[in-house]
Automatic annotation (TrEMBL):
<feature type="transmembrane region" description="Helical">
    <location>
        <begin position="123"/>
        <end position="141"/>
    </location>
</feature>
<feature type="transmembrane region" description="Helical">
    <location>
        <begin position="21"/>
        <end position="39"/>
    </location>
</feature>
<keyword id="KW-0472">Membrane</keyword>
<keyword id="KW-1133">Transmembrane helix</keyword>
<feature type="transmembrane region" description="Helical">
    <location>
        <begin position="81"/>
        <end position="103"/>
    </location>
</feature>
<keyword id="KW-0812">Transmembrane</keyword>
<feature type="transmembrane region" description="Helical">
    <location>
        <begin position="54"/>
        <end position="74"/>
    </location>
</feature>
<protein>
    <submittedName>
        <fullName>Uncharacterized protein</fullName>
    </submittedName>
</protein>
Amino acid sequence: MPQGSKAMMSEIEKFISDHPKLILIITIPIYSFFTFIWFREAKLNYSEHLVLNSNRIIVELIIGLLISVITIFYTNSKVLVLLYFGAVTLFSFLYSIWFYYQFFSGFNYSKKGLLLRSILVPASYYLVSFLIGVISAIINLKH
């Protein structure tokens, strides 16, 4: 990996590790945009999607708090990194699918359509995050 890319990733990783709750709060409008798009047939306005996703983020914040408590007692950094980036990311993805499926099940979506939309919301978020990372890496390489 080029030095410029390593430096940029180091800065991004430092910001994310220093401000994990801020990152979660920033994701609320992004997730809300995707739920607004994928579940537009529910005819909820954008502010209702903001409230919906704020409630979803609460559980992720609680899980983050529990992991913070675990870090006090457990010092193996490799396991903690795996736990945080592996288990928490997987939990967040699966919880989001379950959350959206449960919430929008009362809006007359077919089960297949509801499951597909519930998967597409976090998948869209991860895809956009990936694309932003690639674009920022390309921009950083040019400088």
